[in-house]
Design a protein that fits this description.
Blueprint (H helix, E strand, L loop, with lengths): L7 H14 L6 H10 L12 E3 L6 E3 L27
Antiparallel strand pairs: 1-2
Helix pairs in contact: 1-2
């Protein structure tokens, strides 16, 4: 009997959870379950999202609002400040 293949988002969420929890030592299993259970995209608001590039220290917009993009080891902007309003 073959196992049912998980959908793309579920598979990415599970892989991200395993990677994020890998260094968790004795708490690894609990951390992995937590990362699998809590959808990361719910904390980011509506996409597309801005991810901080580790190479240029600037933000790059995800190509779509598909939540699969947020399951990477990247920092995402929670809110962007309109710098034009801060100038006097």
């Amino acid at each position: 009997m073959t196992q049912k293949k998980p959908n793309r988002l579920t598979a990415c969420r599970e892989f991200y959870a395993a990677m994020a929890a890998a260094g968790g030592g004795a708490l690894r299993e609990e951390l992995e379950r937590a990362f699998e259970f809590v959808p990361r995209e719910h904390f980011l608001g509506v996409g597309p999202w801005l991810a901080l590039s580790p190479f240029a220290q600037s933000y790059v917009r995800t190509p779509t609002d598909d939540p699969i993009h947020v399951y990477q080891n990247l920092l995402f902007a929670l809110a962007m400040i309109d710098q034009t309003r801060n100038h006097k």
